[in-house]
Amino acid sequence: MKNIKIYPKDWMTLHPYKQSTPVDAYYAGLANRIHEMMVRTELINSFEPDDAKQICLRMAAYFEDVISGLGIWRAFITKHQQLFGKYLPFYTTDDHYYDDEVNYEDVRFLLWHFTQFYHGLKKGTFVSPDNPANESTSLLIYNMFCDEWTTAPDNPRMKAFFEQEARYGDQEHYEPLLFWFHYHSYLFPDANMELTEYTQALWRENNRTQEQLNEMIMDTHQKLAYVGKTPLLALTSPQWLALIFPESHPDYAFIREVAEQSQAVLPQELIDRNKQEYEQFTTIANGQPILYFPKADELESFLKEKMPDIAGPDYHLPTNLRGRRLALYATPEEGAQIMSSDLDLIKDPANPSYNAERAAKQALSFFIVKHCSVYMLKEMVERGFLADAQTKSLANEERGKAIIQDNWQFLTRYFQKEYPKE
Asked: 322 Cβ partners below 8 Å, 6+ apart?
């Protein structure tokens, strides 16, 4: 790919202010150098020009974040460590890892994250964290960051947004920060894509006036910023801001309250009904977590006879489930559910359709695409039903399995934006 030029105006798209300064020009220059590194390692060939530019800008913004002490990246690694006992998925850190400095493992993970979004998502594939082109590019970027560490300028205008003097104690002052963070901060390239998809769906309906459409788009923009989940740990942007700002901040109570309100809560009636369905299923299944049905008619008859509270005498399965192998399971959190995709990947002794060869190639899909409740996914992992799940690694097959098996909770949060709540 022919080299391109990244300008300060490109850099400004990731920032909550409009006028650039020499500091912004410095980081735009770093983004250009990262682009040259991607060309050198040929990683650039995996991306469209605009996508490659975004990766370079966002990698440089990570460096700006650490240099300026903004705390965005630190919030992620701290939360990941709290959840999973380690700072990062995929990569092992050592005694030379510092949570307030640039680390090689951070660079590798972020380059994987952006490659997964700008390449993997578009191609419908999972990018191996051991991708050799990513590894060599990460080393070049990391070495450049180390060389620049002592002379790189911090960004006082960005720091001002996160200091004690910055006030966010009401919606009027909080929302501009939230909207920038959700739609334009470097960690979440998917947020604008999600908004675009919602907007395009509204346009396709074509049954509203222009004024109605504009109002709905603005409402969607606001709603997604508050409750839309991010791929990194499936947290909302208000939850991230509550992690970034310290409890000592004068407006922390307001920031924390918004974060708590951004999380969905099920009605008690639904919680009780789901639990009843689970208890009924457990009694019928005799200890089996999943019941398998080779034909839809068999599952339909089972539901009518054994679980009439769910399926009355006139109940019929959706037509799209006809002619498929099906499975039924239940969890206390989400009640009885039907599973219809990739049943042959489940390594369950009771599963008559299990296919070991295909499972070795495709079982990863359970963590990437929603096949079942995240609570059942957790149950299957604990029972070894998805032990075949793996990805490619040049190291060996064991490493390929470890990437998935040791990080399945992160992967589920990343791709499905869900996780089992305790």
From this structure: 296
Provide the token pair at 322. 């006809």
What distance in Å separates the CA atoms of residue 166 and residue 54, rounded to the nearest whole number?
28
Chain center to CA of 194: 12
3 state SS of 371: coil
Query: Contacts for 406-414 with beta carbons within 8 Å, 24 or more apart?
Result: 407/89, 407/90, 408/367, 408/381, 409/83, 409/84, 410/80, 410/84, 410/89, 410/233, 411/89, 411/367, 411/368, 412/367, 412/374, 412/377, 413/231, 413/232, 413/233, 413/234, 414/231, 414/232, 414/233, 414/234
From CA 31, how far away is CA 57, in angstroms rounded?
Answer: 5
- 3-class SS at 5? coil
In the predicted structure, residue 2 carries a pLDDT above the cut 60? no
**Start-to-end CA span in the chain (Å):** 48
42 phi and psi, to 5 degrees?
70, 10
d(CA 3, CA 311): 61
Kindly report, residue by residue over 324-367, the tens digit of the pLDDT: 899 999 999 999 999 999 999 999 999 999 999 999 999 999 99
**Distance from C-alpha of 165 to C-alpha of 176, rounded to nearest angstrom:** 16
Q: How many CB atoms lie within 10 A of CB 317?
A: 17
In this prediction, residue 1 carries a pLDDT of: 45
Residues for the chain: how many in total?
422
